[in-house]
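Troubleshooting: if your tokenizer reports a length mismatch, compare your output against this known-good record of 614 residues.
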Amino acid sequence: MMDILTHKQFCLEKYKGSSVLSLINRKLLIHKQLERPPRSYVVYSDLHGSYDKFVYWLKNGFGYFKLCIQEILGDSYSEEICQSYEKLLLLVNRTRFDSIKKSIDVEEQQNPLKNQFLERVPKKFIAALGELEKHGLSRKRILKDILEILRGVTRGDERRIIKIVPPSFLENILKLYAPTDDPSYEAVVGAVVEKESIFSIVTSMLVKLILSNTFDKHINLGDTFDRGEEADKLMGLYRGYFNNDDSPIPLHYIWGNHDILWMGAGIGNPILCMTALRISMRYNNVDFLARYGFNLEPLRAFARKSYKKTPIGKYVKAKNFTKWSKEDAIKMTKALLVLESKLTLTWLKDAMDEVGDETVGRIDYRRDFERQKELMSFLPVEGLGDDEKEWEEFVKKNPLYLDPYFPTVDSKKPGLLTEEEKAIVDDLVKQFTTLPKLQGDIKWLFEYGEAYRVVDHTLYFHAAIPSTKDMELAETKGLKGRKLFDFIQRDLKRIGEFHREGKTITRREKMLLWYLWCGRDSAFFCKDKMATLERAIFEKDIASRGTLTTWKENPNPFYKNIRNDDFLNKVLKEFHADKICMGHTPVKNMQQAILSHKHGAFIVDGGASEAYGD
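Known-good structure output:
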């Protein structure tokens, strides 16, 4: 059992190996930063495989370049000249991201930004400099304006330049960055502007420094996977573009529930392996599975053998199918759903048997097990064959059902896998836990992800903070509020470390990921159930008459409380924050996005995936 550390104990443990001088230096740097202007962050959430859209946002600076230039140069120039400066930034930035996108698309290992300062200056950039000169600006004025923009975005912090400028250029760049009355400064400026070739090279380099420092941090509120086709490319972008020596742009990644799903699958939870694949099949997101190296032909053969006729339930959501026919996709999705349902029943039973005496960190699975056991009792319908007419007759007499045919489910032992099913499950779990590219991404999520983050007094999290109807923080796993989030984070970090080191991950640990994915009190889900099976096999209106069969997923009171200023105040005090920013819940307009004007609380999930209808 893992000890629950206080924040003070956690910090003492984190910095126990640091020298006194390094801690003093860290403290002085923090005070230095506090004296500077406010930092700029870009926050986004729930990209769900929308790689092209995200790259488009990055290429255009999230629309911030115009605001930045207007703030720094707006008092000195007309809008037309400011637009010309914005064009300089856009030209270089779009070229950079075209290179990044190309390298990710062809799966190059080398970071295209590694030699960005040594690249040839594009002709379009030189032409854009010429446009500024046509506005009557001298090269010297243009150079000093670009330097002014650079000082503005770096907030006068030369360390942010030192980190990325090649050593051979560093002395002169720093000389330009910090203007003085010394004759040597004007001499450097004069040398730069004298020749067009040198002028274009230096200004191009300065613009790249501006682009690398426009945002102090990127904050991603999670859910990269599912509902979109290019989650693997998004992961490649995170790993290649952020938090490395060639591009030291910090990215804070907050885990979302769909990230938790794939992390659990990646460490070998068979329920989550089936779930992750089922969702991909449901939305026809199969190309990225191929890029990861999945071989689903054995699954397809098994599904075709199990279901000669096309199942009649609600199994897929996609309208167009590429790799396989719609009929095969439905059969494979149904096969995965049955496997998922069986494994959920057996693993919940085993997890109940493993529960010890500890209270902190304990999850009681009894309610989940009883619900799953009752649901599974609906599946085995005696006497039905693989005949559409028989199904139709049965459904007419039993209108609760959309699909009554489950030939692989044993009425006496509904959780029992057939020998063929065991082989399929073992094969898919092995693929999840051994495919190199996927494992690299899963290990990155464990290492860099967080349950929450407070940055400059703003609390960032993905989905929910479990609470009660009377607007108090609810206790889960014997903990609540910040202590609950800290416990979850340290538990997941420990599991991730074990996984990286090749150590055995216990069933309890694998089931923790299942609970965080779909548990009623999970901070990543927070609904009374996930009605996956119900929505696939039951008719919606008739199913709504029963609490077991209903499609409805009742949300935790948090989702109502979050729009109450009194509750928000409790949350802010609990996390020592002044503002709140969350994702998870798609919003279509500013009115929906703003939770509270008073407390500066808002949602940033704009539904980037096409599956949301965007």
